[in-house]
Amino acid sequence: MVVTAVRQSLLAILVLVSVFAASFAGSDATAQESRTQEIERSSSTIASIRSEIDDGNLEKADEFEVTLRELRDGSRQRLSSIERELEAVRVQADLLGPAPGENEPPESEIVASERSALETQRAGLNGERTRVSANIYETGELLTRLSGARVGTLYRSLLERGVSPLVPKVWSEAFASFADVSSRIQRYFLAWGDRKRESGGYNFSLAIIIGALVLSLLMFGPVNRWVMSTFAVRIEKRKPTPPRRVIVAGMKMAARAAPGIIGGLIIIETLRAQGLLNGDGVAAARAFWIGILSILVVSGFTAGYFSPSSPEWRIAPIDAKRARVVSRIAISIAVVLSLKTLLGAIGIAAKADDALILLVRAAGAIAIAALIFALCRSVLWQVEGDASGGGWRLVRRFGRVFAIVIIAAALVGYVSLADFAATRICFVALFVGLAWILRAMLAETTWSLRKGLLPGEKKNDEAVSENFHFWSRLSINVILVFLLAPVFAVLFGVPRDAVGDIAGQALFGFNIGGVHIPSVAKLLVAGVVFVTVMAVTRLVQSGVQRGPLAHSRADIGVQNSLITLLGYAGLVIALFASISALGFDLGNLALIAGALSVGIGFGLQSIVNNFVSGLILLFERPIKVGDWIVTTSGEGTVKKISVRSTEVETFDRSSIIIPNSELISSTVTNWTHKNKIGRVIVPVGVTYDADPEKVRDILLDCAKSHPLIVAYPEPYVTWMDFGASSLDFEIRAYLNDISKGLGVRTELRFEIFKKLKEAGIEIPFPQRDVHIKSVPEGFERSSDKPALSGNGDHNNA
């Protein structure tokens, strides 16, 4: 009755919802029709652009790219809307409940019609989602092709030979263009001054600009001293280690770069506020600022890396004199690169002639290559006592060859190639140096945090420390590689938008062979969820073990079983939570379970059998951790019950790994199943001359006087048999802890031997009487000679 009432209530609610939904059906139908038309238009436009790209018509590549990005953004918005509508349909379908089965009564017409309408709506939405997803993936594919075409065009242009900078005509045209650019720059500043004079603010603006320049220059001293005194000087007071040397180098670099960053922002914003910079001027000013910043970074890095004044903190294995030379060469490379970039930006802003830009690029590439060649000379890197010159000999040789190739390419007309190679090698070296410093700082930080979080760890545990160093370095290296990969891709010609598309695919997921791969972000979230749940599980296990279980009367085996079950439960929860975080529907796990059942039927029988047997062992507890068991595989103490097998440590300190199924299906002797009480038996034999009752009393006294033998059940003596050489007795006694049985039996034997000897009772040894029925010929029987004797080859009887 209650179920019927609830069902009727749900039907009433559904009817009301249907009535209200009918009022908006017209508008929804119109919106859906509009969306369908937009999807079709997007598909048509994508197909048209694909046809153009397939035909090689890339003159409108920029226009194609803009259109494709707009189509992709619109498709993503439509996909989000469709997903929301599908979720609403799913909720309404859940309210209806499952459809009736074959032998169940049919549902009402209202419910049946509503279910049919929902299924029709769901099918339509699924079709739209498929088409929209196809549009998204097609736009991504076409954008990738356009990016590849751009990269190919770039490298083909680099391999095209142009005019050599040695041609006199280039120089004459460059000088003429230089004069024109100079006059344009002069007119630009004069026009700004005239405008300011007309408005009456020339002197004020000039004073503000001069004040900004002075403030920026004055910042170098205080900021540099503050950074050095706050960080670098404190570290230098400690013992030099490789990570600390790198950190000091990074602090010196930051001490010189920080004022440049702040001062450059102040100057650029001041010039822009005073109207001295327009669009082209801002680009030139930023090029100048970035150039100064690069020089400061290289200067600070070389000051820390070569450290001419502090040999103990020097990273490079060279003396102070060579360190100064190398530092000057490195700074000179940064100066030339910055100057070339600035002149190029000014030339573009002032619309300089191609000859002047060509000459600037060629001169910059040749100067950088010459400095690289000088930097790679072996004499600068020779280490005292090292005939090979130390350092990376192969890298230095490559650097010299690379510099010669750049100079030759620039001189024969491949100026674009020479400029590209020289510029990129400088930027790569700069970013690698920054990453190297950041890596050392992160490694030192993680090590410090570890020591702070684990203050009680043994200092001499080198294996644990080495493992931590390895995994922390590996994690930091992987993170830095992922951070540097986009930067290097842009440096070597991949468009920024293409790099952004790759990052977007990592965030939104991508397809491989028709299979959708979840996004990297979702994978990371799933990993974090799994690790978090497992960490919480470990904390709960530790809390339960140290709290309730530690103050309970449950034995150690029960405690270990409960802790293991908690671990299994946490593992299952972590798996389901991480799968849910990936976006998979947990309702589809039935299909996965069906597939697993097929796999189990073919090849996973033993694994599943052992897993289920392990669960039986934990729930039924025929054996527990700490039990003394005897199996067909061996005898020992149970150390661990895992998912697949049980570890048993023998009394020889070896480990036996026994499959859990063997412990369930075979006979197992458990000495400590219910309790540790066990019986020990010590056999004793005495001569036939002994008094049996006296022997019994002695044996009982020895047993009762032992401190580990319990009074109940009381020990007793059994007269086992009349032996061939002795009267055979057994003393049988019970211990609180059968694991000490071997020691108790040994101590009883010592005591029994002592008591019997004091009582004059002999413990006999086996005796045999030999009766000779016949004597071989040549032997004589004599009463005063041995029956048999022999010496060498001569026999006497």
From TrEMBL:
Domain Mechanosensitive ion channel MscS C-terminal: 681-763
PANTHER family: MECHANOSENSITIVE CHANNEL MSCK, POTASSIUM CHANNEL RELATED
Primary residence: membrane
Family statement drawn from the similarity comment of this UniProt entry: Belongs to the MscS (TC 1.A.23) family.
Organism superkingdom: Bacteria
Source species of the chain: Hyphococcus lacteus
Keyword Signal applies: yes
Protein's recorded name: Mechanosensitive ion channel domain-containing protein
Subcellular location: Cell membrane
Membrane topology: Multi-pass membrane protein
InterPro entries according to UniProt: LSM_dom_sf, MS_channel_C, MscS-like_channel, MscS_beta-dom_sf, MscS_channel_2nd, MscS_channel_C_sf, MscS_channel_CS, MscS_channel_TM-2
Transmembrane intervals: 204-226, 288-308, 329-350, 356-376, 397-415, 421-442, 474-495, 515-540, 561-584, 590-619
Signal peptide residue numbers: 1-21
UniProt region (Disordered), positions on chain: 776-797
Sorted UniProt keywords: Cell membrane, Membrane, Signal, Transmembrane, Transmembrane helix
Domain Mechanosensitive ion channel MscS, first and last residues per copy: 607-673
